[in-house]
Amino acid sequence: MKSIDEIESDTRIQNVFPFPHGHQGFLSLRCGKRQVFAFVATRDDDGHGGIYEHVSVSVANSNTKTPTWEEMCEVKDIFWHETEEVHEVHPAKGDYIHGVGNLKNVLHLWRPANGWKR
């Protein structure tokens, strides 16, 4: 994952605020018609000794719209280097997080801090 300085220097980032284990804020993407997206970027412990880099993304001020593939690709480019592999995970239904608080249609990008094992 890029450093917070690299992320904040990206002109698509509008605001960044400290958040437990990471940062949250808003960004404006160049692709598509929708302009403002909310994000939360964290480093999470999986409880088994693994650390994961994580970015959740939602269309700001919308409870019904979901980011597109193209929008998620641009988000990946904001937060990670082009050489880093990042996954959008579809977990078992019982483990799925559909949203945070009142937010729906939130998508999540994940990457083990040390990269994916091959």
**Principal-axis shape:** globular
End-to-end distance, in Å? 19 Å
Strand order of the largest sheet: 1-2-3-4-6-5
**Topology pattern, helix = H, strand = E:** HEEEEHEE
Major sheet details: 6 strands, antiparallel
Task: Output the radius of gyration.
Answer: 14 Å
Indicate the structural class: alpha+beta
- Strand count: 6
* Residues in helix, %: 10-25%
| Overall structural domain count | 1
- Mean pLDDT, as a whole number? 87
Strand content: 25-35%
Explained architecture:
It is built from two helices and six strands. It has one domain. The chain is globular and about 40 Å long. The protein has helices at 4-9, 69-79, and strands at 13-19, 22-28, 36-45, 51-59, 87-88, 107-112. With 118 residues, it is α+β, with helices and mostly antiparallel strands. Strands 1-2-3-4-6-5 form a six-stranded antiparallel sheet.
Secondary structure: elements and pairs:
Layout lengths: L3 H6 L3 E7 L2 E7 L7 E10 L5 E9 L9 H11 L7 E2 L18 E6 L6
Antiparallel strand pairs: 1-2, 2-3, 3-4, 4-6, 5-6
Short structural summary:
This protein has about 120 residues and is α+β, with helices and mostly antiparallel strands.
Keywords:
6-stranded antiparallel sheet; single chain; 118 residues; 14% helix; globular; 6 strands; alpha+beta
